[in-house]
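Quick start: read one record
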Amino acid sequence: MPEATPTVSNAEYHSTKQIGSLRDECGYRGSQPKSPHRYWDWTLDAANIEASPLFDGSSYSLSGNGLPTPGRPDPTLITVSLPSVPLIHIELPIGTGGGCVTTGPLANSTVPFGPVIKDNFFGTSLYNNPINLEYKPHCLKRDLNPKIASTALAQGAVDKLLQSPNITAFMTILDQGPDPITLNVHSGGHTSVGGDMLDAFSSPGDPTFFLHHAQIDRLWTLWQNVDPSTRQNALHGTLTYMNWPPSPEGKLEDLIDLGKLSSGGNGTMMREFMSTTEGRFCYEYV
């Protein structure tokens, strides 16, 4: 798995804490590259995600696929409800697992809550009904999906993203797409792994979440570096996902609340997150 070469930084500290938590709290006994800032290069696994060393269930993997779940309709119909987008019905091809992960270092591990999202993605009831976020421990589930991975995570999809002429095009290809579930690299990574990764709220319960989002950070950084003068601080969109609940356009001076990770008591300014070598961070991707 590719790795980055950062200097001592916040990125190093939090990545080290991540692997420490995996070992101390989740029973992970595998290893990761010397560099503490890691990412999942999807293009290496798009052709055969089940054979990926990340998911082959070996001692040095993040465990394997979930147990097969027979009898599911293929494709499965998912209804997606977004506040500012017409109701979308998507036929999602099923993966090859669907059940609990039983092989590798994370076998039989527990995710503390979820799934929060079932058939209604980001509906208003999710924000008004806290019972959806109640403690609900269950086994870590995966449903590796070769069909989705072979297109959404392929080199062509990454090339299209990196060829974006501006931040609006970049964000549209990355996250908004014509199909918010399968036809972009962000959600395509979630649906390619499936199981708990399908749920926007509980997906961090699968450690793959962090490698997947580190790859997104890497691609954004590569895109920025093509023309730092116009791309380094380029912003697009409001302060809430899909503008729900409605919020103002994001600005570099906006404060982001990271809880205990924020610098100071009022949050951290957006501009502090716009570079891997300035502000809070000091690391580079290779």
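The chain has eight helices and eight strands.
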